Amino acid sequence: MQRWKVKIAYDGTEFSGWQVQPEKRTVQREINSALGRIHQGQQVNVTASGRTDAGVHAKGQIIHFDSPLQIPADRWSKALGAHLPDDIQIIESVPVPAGFHARFDAVAKEYRYFVRCGQERDVFSRHYAHHVYKQLDERAMQSALDHLVGTFDFSSFCASNTNVVDKVRTLFEARVERISDDQVVFVFRGNGFLYNMVRIITGTALAVGTGERDTGEMVTIRDARDRRFAGKTAPGHGLYLWDVYYKDV
Amino acid sequence: MQRWKVKIAYDGTEFSGWQVQPEKRTVQREINSALGRIHQGQQVNVTASGRTDAGVHAKGQIIHFDSPLQIPADRWSKALGAHLPDDIQIIESVPVPAGFHARFDAVAKEYRYFVRCGQERDVFSRHYAHHVYKQLDERAMQSALDHLVGTFDFSSFCASNTNVVDKVRTLFEARVERISDDQVVFVFRGNGFLYNMVRIITGTALAVGTGERDTGEMVTIRDARDRRFAGKTAPGHGLYLWDVYYKDV
Which of B53, B105, B182, B243 is labelled catalytic? Predict the structure, then answer.
């Protein structure tokens, strides 16, 4: 039995997120089904670094699974890819020790959130970036985000319907960059993320960027530890799970 | 009655091209249907600068139609947009003289063709760029394309199932540019294009770019005036109708 660590990308547009749900097209279901075919119908369970919601994309999701098959590392990606739909892509397959765990061994994750702004929508990015009709002040947004770098109780930026008790997380990086006149990208890197955390932080930062809220309010919102203080949850289709970091492998 | 010249963009992925066909989702059908709703069910015919095939995109398709409605220019785009699906976008609406014709008055058109190259496919561009697994020599491709700038009989670059008799066209520009390590774009501007002309020229240029064919062969192919001499027709999803030029309006 060999454990495999596999990096995948997917276009979340036509998926009801990562996790298997009855009668829904999900990424996990497609991968389970591909692994089943490769293993002649034998079920192989796959574990991801974490779930992604409907419409959310991945550039570097990490999964693991165990296989009795003697397939060389450089051929696993092609073998899997051959059984996957064209909105899932295998980027790399690496053999790892049996103790490796895609979720529990992750030491950091990076998410990116893409936003287009201005009067004109762009038909080609409708599934790949959130559109805001106003211009965005990225300096104001960056000042607001600076208040979130460090270790805090992020309860204000967590969807209220969650079971997680400990809401303390560390953000190593919270950055916004202008890509072009009508595009910005948010980059978040941290040791863990609460449910909807990136989307709520982004929604709040966008309210600062359009001038609806002041930069300094970010501190009040953060310290309130109450979801009702923060802004809207930005939509899923602007969000990308960009990378997952591990200690050794 | 006012004639309107309207610039539209569309993501061709989920359309069976421009032209109305029974039981197919086409761009023309969606626009007819939107105009019908705005005009309380009265049919309004729409004419485009030309057809686009299934999967082909438009950044600047031009259409015209006549309307008895007194809607100001700055509100036509919103009025139409409100009745259109989100893969069609109205960019600009301009009132024009009744004699204006989107197809017959076009003096030039620009098409662009996007190609990604290299070992790694990109899941996010699968509908928006053609993927070639080899590296591309853009200098060789440019030298080949240089032989096509001017006025020629382009029969070699025209799909054989066409009724057009006169296959002489003028290309003002035939250019390839590297966008990044794994992306190139072809730009074609001419006074008219034969059926599949851009896709056949691109397919032939790509054969030069990968080294399968020599630069100089482009002259032989051009002068043969025979479709069988040229390369493959590149797939539709890399192609964009980029702009249409008119004399005055």
Answer: B53
